[in-house]
Amino acid sequence: MRTLLYSSQTYDRDSFLSADVPADIELHFQPARLTLDTVALADQYPVVCAFINDDLSAPVLERLAAGGTKLIALRSAGFNHVDLPTAQRLGLSVVRVPAYSPHAVAEHAVALILSLNRHLHRAYNRTRDGDFTLHGLTGFDLVGKTVGVVGTGQIGATFARIMAGFGCELLAYDPFPNPQVEALGARYLPLDQLLAQAQIVSLHCPLNEHTRHLINQASLQCMKRGAMLINTGRGALVDTPALIEALKSGQLGYLGLDVYEEEAQLFFEDRSDLPLQDDVLARLLTFPNVVVTAHQAFLTQEALGAIAQTTLDNIMGWAAGTPQNSV
Ligand code: NAD
Fold first, then answer.
1. pLDDT tens digit at each of 327 positions of the chain
2. Which keywords accompany this UniProt record (predicted)?
3. Is 263 a catalytic site residue?
């Protein structure tokens, strides 16, 4: 089965080629993102393997189906970027990797918290510049702080466990409370109450019509003044211009983002020689109390290995008529 992997980076190539690739699967690595401009590259490929910023909207899916594609194998857990009704209408199967390493993402959320709280991003630059002063680097102890976890599935629950280890008080919001998180002592509350009480809020829910801009101007006003917000979920869970206003007024004290609503045009590419055209992101990057990473929470050896192996198993399962991890 000829399989074209769009948006493939060197680490994808390494992880797939280190996995157990069945003889029936012929892998072709394509660094370009899947868009209407690049979809023709997939002609005669029955399997297209896509990542989070690939375009899987109706026009692209129609062109894929016309070119002979039958299976979209997502290398991600999230599938908010796929037009599922169109895929179904065209007879395109869609499979995903529901869980690869919740630890990878949860630990990255914690890394953002510690970077912001202890100003590691500023200290790193300062010491490299020969400036060994400490002013402006005062942090706070995590023990005893109240942490709000929005979405307590696999990643949120893992994150909650780590924060319980720091001695934090846990609040949670999820339409389906997780007994494992309740067992940590977390209290489930309505979102506005969680936001009003938490000093740190971390988002781990999927992006859908109910969660788009879950954090907006009104919900930011509900938050404790000076609180920290962490988003490793999806960019559109937050209204970014509203975050900028809240940072300017001091209502939001710290912001850690691994995802950005307009990331598709930017992330995973070296654009360091080019003027940044995105004025919202440019403004965000001026704040000393903001850390942005370019959707790297998933990027651990363990997660990459699991993504590669599950994707290969998904393709073989589909080819054998016993699909697994269907969306
Ligand atoms: P999961 O399905 O195990 O958990 C999601 C949880 O969110 C569920 O418990 C669900 O009930 C809850 N939820 C649904 N609607 C909600 C709402 N309106 N408010 C609050 N909670 C709600 O998924 P997961 O594996 O924990 O992943 C969570 C999200 O993390 C994914 O959807 C994806 O967008 C994101 N993610 C990001 C990265 C990254 O690299 N930054 C990597 C993997 C996943």
1. 999 999 999 999 999 999 989 999 999 999 999 999 999 999 999 999 999 999 999 999 999 999 999 999 999 998 999 999 999 999 999 999 998 899 999 999 999 999 999 999 999 999 999 999 999 999 999 999 999 999 999 999 999 999 999 999 999 999 999 999 999 999 999 999 999 999 999 999 999 999 999 999 999 999 999 999 999 999 999 999 999 999 999 999 999 999 999 998 899 889 999 999 999 999 999 999 999 999 999 999 999 999 999 999 999 999 999 999 999
2. NAD, Oxidoreductase
3. yes
Q: How many CB atoms lie within 10 A of CB 226?
A: 12
**Both 139 and 230 in a single domain?**
yes
Please state the domain count of the chain: 2
Indicate whether 111 and 89 sit together in one domain: no
| Atom in ligand 1 nearest the alpha carbon of residue 152 | 9
Domain span at 90? 2-100+300-319
Rg of the chain over all Cα atoms, to the nearest angstrom: 21
Amino acid, res. 162: I
CA of 324 to the centre of ligand 1 (A): 20
Q: Are residues 163 and 259 in the same domain?
A: yes
57: domain CATH number is: 3.40.50.720
Is 326 contained in some domain? no
Residue 285 lies in a domain: yes
Q: Does residue 87 sit in the same domain as residue 137?
A: no
Tell me which of 119, 169, 234, 261 is the catalytic residue: 234
Ligand 1 geometric centre to CA of 41 (Å): 32
Alpha-carbon span 114 to 151, nearest angstrom:
21
Q: Sign of the C-alpha dihedral, residues 184, 185, 189, 195?
A: negative
Please report the atom of ligand 1 found closest to the CA of residue 234.
34
Rounded Cα–Cα distance for residues 318 and 324 (Å): 7
One domain, residues 209 and 306: no
Question: Do residues 136 and 94 both lie within one domain?
Answer: no
Does 324 map to a domain? no
